[in-house]
Write a structure and sequence with these properties.
Blueprint: E1 10-13, E2 16-20, E3 33-37, E4 42-45, H1 52-62, E5 67-72, H2 83-90, E6 94-96, E7 121-122, E8 128-131, E9 134-140, E10 149-153, E11 158-162, H3 180-191, E12 197-200, H4 209-233, E13 236-237, H5 238-245, H6 254-270, E14 274-276, E15 285-288
Parallel strand pairs: 4-5, 5-6, 6-7, 11-12
Antiparallel strand pairs: 1-2, 2-3, 3-4, 8-9, 9-10, 10-11, 13-15, 14-15
Helix pairs in contact: 3-4, 5-6
Length: about 290
């Protein structure tokens, strides 16, 4: 992975500058990457956590230029909380993903919800925000979250992929807000595009995006087949499946693996291929139907 210094603006191309937030973790990699788009007037994509040092770094990168929009891909706490203080500092509206209210009281493996996130304008498929020499077009990409958006920059054929496609790891799909069938459909949707480069929320830029997306689809299909092979052998709970599927995994990432397996099982259950012996979710025993 390329070096990602925290708080230092790095110009990725004439219209795009990246500023890394100081929130590294097993789930965020080096941290959340905020992207500043434009030269004269700007958009700020995913201002990250509400960390005063990061907001200060963003304001320094903005350098007093007008901000047309603060653009949010989704409502996780490593992406959207910085929107409110940045909006107060710049006067820019918050646009993008819809607000979300979760009834999920189960364990969370990825970044938790930003309960205070309230956009001034929700963007739907094809909606745009624009400024001097740039346009950001919303692309609905549910899966990691139900309200996830990616944003295309048609002037340079770049795509800001948020957490849907990352440059360092596969994304967590954590039910009930995360949905494996929606995630796979969103990957197929991106496969049909011809974007030149992805700028993800975490990790290196993706210079061969279709190759990576094809690999992500294949990876998830392999995981599904692993689950089916194990269940054809005998009914199992998720903990037993994870122990066999993710040998040597960092223990801090086991909850994420369990949620991902649960997402696959929910998808397989919806397709009538597997079923649980109880309604206990992660604690239930799963089996092949028939």
């Amino acid at each position: 992975m390329a070096e990602h210094p925290t708080g230092i603006p790095i110009q990725l191309e004439p219209l795009v500058t990246r500023v890394l937030a100081p929130n590294p973790s097993p789930y965020t990699g080096t941290g959340t990457q905020t992207h500043v788009v434009g030269t004269t007037d700007l958009a700020v994509i995913d201002p990250g956590p509400g960390d005063p040092a990061h907001i200060g770094a963003l304001l320094a990168a903005i350098g007093g230029r007008p901000v047309s929009a603060i653009v949010i891909t989704h409502h996780h706490r490593d992406h959207s909380p910085g929107a409110r203080p940045l909006s107060l500092a710049t006067g820019a509206p918050i646009v993008g993903a819809a607000a979300f209210f979760s009834s999920d009281d189960g364990p969370r493996a990825d970044a938790s919800f930003d309960a205070d996130y309230r956009p001034d304008r929700v963007l739907a498929e094809g909606d745009t925000v624009s400024g001097g020499g740039w346009t950001l077009a919303a692309i609905t990409t549910p899966g990691h979250t139900s309200n996830h958006l990616a944003f295309a920059l048609p002037e340079t054929k770049a795509l800001f992929s948020g957490d849907h496609v990352m440059g360092w790891s596969t994304t967590v799909v954590s039910p009930p807000d995360g949905d494996m069938a929606a995630y796979m459909a969103s990957l197929e949707k991106l496969m049909a595009r011809d974007d030149r480069v992805y700028y993800p929320g975490h990790g290196d830029q993706v210079d061969r995006p279709q190759r990576l997306v094809r690999g992500l689809l294949g990876h998830r299909k392999q995981r599904e087949e692993q689950i089916l092979r194990l269940l054809r052998d005998a009914p199992r709970d998720i903990a037993a499946m994870v122990a066999q599927m993710y040998v040597g995994l960092d223990r801090r990432l086991i909850p994420a693996a369990e949620r991902s397996v649960l997402a696959h099982l929910y998808d397989l259950d919806h397709r009538g291929i597997v079923a649980a012996d109880s309604n206990e979710g992660l604690g239930g025993v799963w089996r092949i139907v028939g």
